[in-house]
Task: structure prediction
Amino acid sequence: MSTLTRPGATENAAPPTTRRLRGLAWLMFRRHRPALLTCLALIVLGGAWIVYQRGAMLDTLHAAGWPGKPADALGENVAGDASETLNSFAVNLSFLTTVLAVFVGAPLLASDMENGTARLATTQSVPRGRWLLAKLGFALLLVTVTTGALSGFSAWWRGSVAPFNPHDWLHDVSFDTTVPVFVAFGVFSTALGITIGALIRRTVPAMALTFLTGYAATIAFDLVKDRLATPRRIAFPLEGARPAALDEAVLVDNWVGTASGDLYGWGTCANDVAPDACRAKMGIVNSVWDYFGKDQMAGMQWVASGIFLVLAGLLVALLLWRTRRGPF
Result:
């Protein structure tokens, strides 16, 4: 009599696969996989587009004779098109912080609170504080990597064609999209969106309010840029050449002045019948400028970045205090 035997269940079974992500890390990846993949696509596609546009621009400029010829000798079509392309890209890139705040920040907690997922997650084995820190860390790290990568690509492009960058570097949008300012403003905007979402607890209203407050924040930033550093003052002969210190400088205000230092409005004597005689009678001999030098740009950017990071830290502290004490 023969007996039929079957191999044990575990003899030929494949070894169980181990997940590299466990616990909250796996939960964050599964819960926010669309946002993660979208940001990775933005980095890859945006970086590839910048590489292509940079190469095409350099080919055009080299064909026109640059850098053998100075930028202002290439003609308005070539130099103007290059500056316009750089400015258009910077404008489009500047909207990314608002997009991330609206689509990553605002729904981060609002959707979980609205759907009851937050209460379910925090009644399991994960403490509320740890769950909150994991959510915040994921969102802010994702925004930091995305903004840092794209602004880094942008800085590489701009650096290779520096003479064609806009001369008003303070009020131009390129100031906002350089690495430190862009990353810090992205973190601040996202923290603002997360906080609004946690307070409103409804996804769509939180996204709408985040968009409006983010837009208001960009306007407020434009208004305070001139306060990020102390302007310098320089006086030079009224009819003389501008000093080299004013190359690539950003004008804050200007006057006409006397040798003793008295200042008058720039239009003084301009409408007089004999402007030169009028100025000679008043003793006006100098043109006086208040300006920001290009060497002040880096310091002003780090000051702005510090302000945004401090505001983001305050928002995160408020969020943790509110959500740890209040019900989900």
In short: The mean pLDDT is 87.
